[in-house]
Amino acid sequence: MRPRWVRPALFALLALTGLLYLWGLSAAGWANEYYAAAVQAGTQSWKALLFGSIDAGNAITVDKPPASLWVMALSGRIFGFGTLSMLVPEALMGVASVALLYGAVRRVSGAGAGLLAGSVLALTPVAALMFRFNNPDALLVLLMVVAGYCMIRALDGASTRWIALAGVAIGFAFLAKLLQALLVTPALALVVLVAVPGSVWLRLRHLAVGLVAIVVSAGWYLVLVSLWPSDSRPYIGGSTNNSLLQLALGYNGLGRVFGGDGNPGGSSDSGGGPGGLMGSAMFGGSTGITRMFGESMGTEISWLLPAALIGLVAGLWFTRAAPRADRTRAALLLWGGWLVVTVVVFSFMKGIMHPYYTIALAPAIAAIIGISVRELWRGRQFALPRVALAAMLVSTGVWNFILLDRTAEWLPWLRWTVLAGSIVVAAVLLAGGHRLGRGTVALAAAGLLFGLGASAAYTIETIAGNHGGGIPTSGPARAGGSMGFGGPGGPGGQSASDNTELKNMLTAADNRWAAATVGSHVAGSLELSTGTSIMSIGGFSGGDNSPTLEQFQSYVGSGQVHYFIVGNGPGGGRPGGPGGDSGTGEQITAWVQQHFSATDVAGTEVYDLTAPN
């Protein structure tokens, strides 16, 4: 029977998590305008919702599968499209993730461990960042935690059902962010083979059931897209041949791991990527085993990573002689396998690696901290568990001091407090703090305070600040800490939200597309400020071969596009300018400039495609 304090404590944790993640949520505005425009399109067109189109005219999709967009767009259809209807579901996914992680850890190590794990997840800066954002990562993490919870339940019996449900969760996670969802599958498979009750053949059958569940729950959508006539659906953004499977295996799949397919990323030297841009902090920094601790990733996720690694090793050592189906060891294999595989892939992947991807590590770190602290604390009368606990605490204090020193002007007293407090608590524990009687509770509370204090402060600062743009980062504002994209006119030009004359022109147009422009950065801003459909030529950065010049000429000839807008921002369609491309966008721009006359609309170059020269 659970102690009476458990339920109120859980409700308090979830209420505080909800308060943190919902507080001032509208301050982020449209967050990532690329996905916000697709959400808006999904509220205007069911086909756009189904395929994840950037525009309601269904020219091209975002470069991800649409599962996360389905949730936000359906919310917009029910409550009306706006910032809150788009972002509240993301925040609630964070609360649900905390609740499910609590449940998974509680079933192994008790309510105290579950509450600690849930608290660590809720107070991880990158989690607070992304559960308040409209990128696909919130749904991805929730579904992976669902899979982890189901796998823990499979240890209790009725394994086939729970393993199948875990597979379904991973399959739908694939429809949120493709191959990244599969990084946890080695850990899930390991638990099935090692710890699930039953004979070897029964466990192999369970493994096959899980694999089939993944294939079916992800494959139905791949089949749907493949069988749907390509001329009656939007082009699959980010792909080279209008194929979602190619997108998964190319640009947004193996290309992220091995580089290529439009994936310049961090390099193994200190110089970063091409021109120093793609190897910069916003694109993962240099590859290598220390990447998760570097300038780009460290303050997002690594606050408790050293402690989690120590706890994982200690936990596996102390359970080395346990029976095959030991639940504690099974849980450590699950969350530890999740952590190790993801860290290794993220550390060495050669393609694009944004700092916020590290939210995928947060549940594993949190679960390992909860389980290992609880199990080591239970054995505190012995020297080795106390040494392991002290090592976890001291490593956290030292590393958090280093992380806080990277923003030395922000709360300068905090790093010294955390460092000194963790060392003192660890010293008392080693000196016999486990024999303090009632004072032991105060010692444990102090350890938790100094262990979580820095991460919690960074999380609160993340929530208090405004973290927008395409590549958000957590914590206090830093130079180059986030990357947004300008509206039409680019540097020095007028943004879409301020260009009243341009907006009036677009809202007055009744064509399938009010305008077309190269790349999504101008298009997304205009769609959100006018509610009209803007064709994003070439997709996200203007590099996709859609539409072709011939297709665009056909659209113009049949009166489906009213204006063409040239911008100076990324993918703006100005040959040779920032983000310019040598493919279809440049060809279309040249054709428009040859056959139509330009008009200056408050600093923006606009062509009326209904009035050829």
TrEMBL record:
Which keywords label this protein?
Cell membrane, Glycosyltransferase, Membrane, Transferase, Transmembrane, Transmembrane helix
* Record field: transmembrane: 78-102, 114-132, 138-155, 162-179, 185-202, 209-228, 301-318, 330-349, 355-371, 383-402, 414-433, 440-460
**Membrane topology designation:** Multi-pass membrane protein
Q: What is this protein called?
A: Glycosyl transferase
| Domain (Glycosyltransferase RgtA/B/C/D-like): residue spans on this chain | 63-216
Q: Where in the cell is it found?
A: Cell membrane
Which cellular components does GO assign to this protein? plasma membrane
Q: Which organism is it from?
A: Mycolicibacterium sarraceniae
